[in-house]
Amino acid sequence: MGRKDLGFRLGTGAFALVLVLIVCGIGVVLTMQSMLSIQKFGLNFWRTETWDPVLGEFGALPFIWGTLYSSVLALAIATPIALGIAVFISELCPSWLRQPLVFLTELLAAIPSIVYGLWGIFVLVPLVRAIESSMPDTVRQLPLFTGPPLGLGMLSAALILAIMVIPFTSSVSREVLKSVPAAQREGAYALGATRFEAIRAALFYARTGIVGAIMLGFGRALGETMAVTMVIGNTPRVSLSLFAPQYTMAAVIANEFTEAAEQLYLAALVEIGLVLFIITLIVNSLSRLLIWSMASSATAGAVAPEPAPASEAA
Amino acid sequence: MKTLQKALASLAGGVLLICGAAAQTIQINGAGATFPYPIYSKWFSEYNKLHSNVEINYQSIGSGGGIQQVTKQTVFFGATDGPMNQEQLQLAPGRILHFPTVLGAVVPVYNSPNLTAELKFTGPLLADIFLGKITKWNDPAIAKLNPGVTLPGRDIIVVHRAEGSGTTYIWVDYLAKTSPEWKTKVGVNASVNWPTGVGGRGNEGVAGLVTQTPGAIGYVELIYALQNKIAYGTVRNMAGEFMKASVQSVTAAAAAAATQMPPDFRVSITNAPGTGVYPISSFTWLLLYETPKDKTQAKTMVDFMKWALTDGQKYCADLGYAPLPADVVKLEMAALAKSKTS
User: Fold this and answer.
1) Which chain A residues touch B188 with a CB distance below 8 Å?
2) At CB < 8 Å, which residues of chain A contact B?
């Protein structure tokens, strides 16, 4: 190995180390800053529902619930649509339409989240309210649809998150489908497969990459702050109802940090950040595991993108 | 060659000039409440026109942030909508003084379509609504205060601020003073554990939700309601009058409080006594150290304060703030005269 090679290896290695140090640094700082709250509440922080800045009692459960519930709902709405877009663009779309469609999905990803939030308040929320109000009373008895029709709440948050997640999932899925070797499709057609069956085979071939794309969207949904806080109703409550106003971890930090003057209150808010950090870590590790187990069970060499950390784009 | 030398010389002279000017400029940094930000930035720019060597920078990061930064001495002065409590004052490395600068008020806004008249409220009624005890617009408690108004049987939807805010502090401070139940169950802070309702972000978030949602009630700063022409209700004061918030009725609340002003100016003027008083009013404060390290900055700041409390007050009305009553200004000028700037 030449000297230049060694230098290059050490240099790039050092950059990779910076990444590890940053992640560890974030973890350490979050833990240190939230010590007061960790010592006072311990594990109860994860499972109590009270959030009372006046009495100094803090529990993160409603925020954990709101974050996971809204992200899972968003994923459930976004995934089929994003996959449909990806399949259409990469497999079925006439070539003159392909570039405009790709451009439009990428444009969706470029809109700042505060703009989504404003659109949510002025367009989506009134629309959701109208839909909620028009539901028959028998449906409103179901636990999924209880509560007054405010418009604000879990349903609006999940819808806005879904719209924000779609460009990510669909772009990555499209790239993954594009990387499926032509031989796969040709082989399917040679065996007499219909177009639908050939696409299904391509999707199966690319499945690890598609799971990666979905997890990328999940990461984005977990950390999204501004658009969600503008439409979710900001009420710390654990509820299954789509109509109920709820709260997320990122939103409560953004909302309450500036005016938190007491030490314990600040520590509790930082601990929410720590909890979000840990949950993101768990979600990413699980998705990594899932991709590994899928990749090792098949010899397929499809592109598997890294699952993204929760990130705030605004 | 000569021209080059000339050019260099003039360049050097220019650099010297810039350096000289920079040495004389006094920069003061502050941070804190968002509510007084429009008037503060007006003051700082007007004051800079009068004294071109004084540059005051202000970051509107919120009252909590202002208290924190002034405590850690990363800024020269802080600003807050709620006075610092004893515990917070003890965390500071020196004695911090409160100086009221202007007045603001918080008003109840509601959306009840087809109402024939403006609604009247009392403190206990607002507290019961925000506690979730009164849930219908045609509740007898509302009907009793508003005879002759046909009230709908619609559900009341409570809207409050989602983020911590000085506006919330003033609102819940008033509710706690007029309702013992609010005081024990919820208490007073910049953000509280709301018994009911949904949270909107910022004045615009609350106002947006209220105007969109039939049956909603919320609270916003008077300035915000005035600038956006949002209808708001009257509130009964201690003298029994139903008062509409206005620049006059808010200044009146401060004048009533001036008679019993504590020497450190940390006083809540919600539910102030006297006639013509709007009861959900409050001071907003500037936070200064009694003995700051930098004497030049300290002297400049005192000069600025003296200007802001006298000449500066004329900018209030245009921006929707209520000016300080003369008695309060007199007390503050006396306090400023005593501050240790040398």
Assistant:
1) 54
2) 50-55, 121-122, 125-126, 129, 148, 150-153, 229-230, 233-235, 245, 247, 251, 254-262
pLDDT, tens digit, 9 for 90 and up, residues A75-111:
999 999 999 999 999 888 898 999 999 999 889 889 9
- Do residues B56 and B47 make contact, with C-beta atoms less than 8 angstroms apart? yes
Per-residue CA distances from B319 to A191, B37, B40, B46, B165 (Å): 77, 11, 11, 14, 20
Nearest chain A Cα to B186, which residue?
Answer: A54
Of B256, B289, B315, the residue that ends a domain is B256
The verdict on B62 and B142 lying in the same domain is no
Identify the CATH number of the domain in which residue B94 sits: 3.40.190.10
Biggest CA pair distance of chain A: 77
Structural domain includes residue B239: yes
Show the domain range for B286: 29-103+280-337
A256-297 pLDDT per residue, tens: 887 777 889 999 999 999 999 999 999 889 888 888 888 777
Query: What is the number of domains present in chain B?
Result: 2
* ipTM > 0.90 for the complex: no
Give residue B16's pLDDT. Answer: 46
Q: Which two tokens stand for residue A102?
A: 């790709």
